[in-house]
Amino acid sequence: LHAMSWLPERVAAAARRSRPAALAAYLEYVAGAWFNCRETCPALPFQGRGAPEPAVAEQVAARLGLADAARTVLSCGLGLLGISAPERV
User: Fold this and answer.
1) pLDDT computed for residue 35 by the predictor
2) DSSP structural state of residue 48
3) Can you tell me the distance from the alpha carbon of 71 to that of 66, in angstroms, rounded to the nearest whole number?
4) Which of 11, 37, 44, 86 is the most exposed place for a label (fewest CB within 10 A)?
5) Is the pTM of this model over 0.85?
6) What's the distance, CA 69 to chain centroid?
7) What whole-number distance in Å separates Cα of residue 72 and Cα of residue 76?
8) C-beta separation of 22 from 13 below 8 A
């Protein structure tokens, strides 16, 4: 969340300095942070094959919310660079 919270500042700085590569580097950092998070704390343990217990359901919901936030940040940033993001991978 911390890395994603910097999107407005990074966009403004890249625009102010006319350096779109700085925005691309930031998006790469966010993607890397998301992939690290996904590997250590997967949103759906066991690739979603098992139903989560009620106590774990809140964690799953929070992790899915984080995944959606990452998707939004990356899609927005790529859109500003003129790159379309895939809907699903």
Assistant:
1) 92
2) G
3) 9
4) 86
5) no
6) 6
7) 6
8) yes
The predicted pLDDT at position 51 comes to 58
Structure tokens that stand for 64 in this block:
């899915």
> Chain centroid to CA 51: how far?
25
Q: What are 9-62's pLDDT values in tens digits?
A: 999 999 999 999 999 999 999 999 999 998 888 777 666 666 556 667 788 888
What is the spatial distance between Cα 55 and Cα 71, in angstroms, rounded to a whole number? 26
Write the single-letter amino acid at 11: V
As a whole number of angstroms, the distance between CA 10 and CA 77 comes to 10
Token output for 81: 């660079």
Helix (H) or strand (E) run with residue 3 in it: helix 2-5
For residue 40 the two structure tokens come to: 């250590």
CA atoms 1, 88, 80, 35: torsion sign: positive
Taking the C-alpha atoms of residue 63 and residue 69, their distance in angstroms, rounded to an integer, is 10
